[in-house]
Input
Amino acid sequence: MSDLFKNYIDGKWVAGVSAKTFENRNPANRNDLIGLFPASDVTDVDAAVQAAKRAFPSWRLVPAPKRGELIYRVGELLRKNKEDIARSMTREMGKILKETRGDVQEGIDTAFYVAGEGRRLFGETTPAELPNKFAMCVRVPIGVCALITPWNFPMAIPTWKMFPALLCGNTVVLKPAEDTPHTAVRLVEILQEAGVPTGVVNLVHGRGEEVGAALVRHRDVQLVSFTGSAAVGREIASASGQDLKRVSLELGGKNGQIVMEDADLELAVEGALWGAFGTTGQRCTATSRLIVHHEVAKQVTDMLVARAEKIKIGDGLDEEVEMGPLINQAAREKVLKYIDIGKQEGARLLMGGSVYAAGSCANGYFFQPTIFDQVTPSMRIAQEEIFGPMLAIIKIKNFEEAIDVLNGTAYGLSSSIYTRDVGRAFRAMRDIEAGITYVNGPTIGAEVHLPFGGVKDTGNGHREAGTTVYDIFTEWKSIYVDYSGKLQKAQIDNAE
Ligand code: NAD
Output
């Protein structure tokens, strides 16, 4: 008998109304069934939204420092259970233990960072223009928030959204990705243990087109916070536009790392390997383009291939393994499709390009680290998000061309430049079109107290994490207190 998991609605673990379920299997070994999860429908979504709606009036009145204390307790419990959650996350999602530990750590960092915000959550005061009058702005919660999340950071991304949303006084319904429902259950169990009041947090499993879409369209959902693909982000934005809902979108990337001829090449290669093949290339911030100065291109390429060939592929639960599987069969087909496209476009396949099925890997969705060179900036493999262990090397003549190439895609999430020239580094910081720029570091490695997000098709202008996340989860209210005892009329009384 496999484990049968449930939704969490109104403070109780409940089966889906239709009793239909879907399977969650280990991508490193398809024979390993983690469990069955409810394939929920609109009725379950409505129950969760109604529970969140009922919980909102009292939760918004809990003082923010108290809400922060609850989140602090959640952080402590995450810390206590870190290793166990990391192991179950690797089993469910495939990335190696070092990375799943990092994923849980991101949740812990977010909890402690957000908890402290309970005693800040600053507003503003400013002088009023009339005598005996006081003016201030305060943050107020929005209401029921739908949080729709992808599978590649099964703990970090839900916590980035949920902890600030709760701290600000909102109630939430979480819809995790179909490939990683178990980590979401672990998170909600911890919230329950920490004492989250009934209805404040709800969890509904199921398909995006059904559960996600129903949440987006629900009249009592005031805000949708979505991380995922640009295609789904566009659908959510247009559906929410009809209802004038607040929507924050964190979407795809086609991140580039520039390597100039004066760079520390060892460091640049190490960064490119981690950026391109960490999480099997399945990060929104993954390095998928290496933009290299022609004078060092051959050397960098040779170093990179020599190192990439040694990457140990396998089950992420083995501490020796450096790269786990892709998430599912569709992801593997997508990478294979782009390998054909790359070849047809005239790029040269330097290494990899095939499924990896040695030994026990035959039962999982493993793939070889893949590198193309002779890539030109307009090729589809240099333009479209592939989300796999695939790196495209593009040669450039000078700094200006490097920046043009880096900026020449529809996305603008993360970016990187390796150079020892401080002037070039500052010009890159100024001219790169991206939400995140690293100097002498890879495109991955964001910290939770800095804003996270991107420009162009990577989103719609919001930034998670940092202090900017509170602009997503609160409304500003301006308040005037007139203690003059008479009618004062702003611009009219003030006329010259
Ligand atoms: P996805 O868009 O397929 O799914 C994301 C979530 O949306 C899932 O929970 C899914 O069930 C749900 N969904 C699907 N269709 C829906 C619909 N019609 N209405 C409402 N919800 C729907 O993305 P994915 O494959 O899970 O994740 C990979 C993508 O996420 C990549 O494009 C990656 O770049 C992006 N991503 C972005 C960031 C960021 O912060 N910018 C972080 C991680 C991942």
User: Anything to note?
Assistant: The longest strand covers residues 29-38.
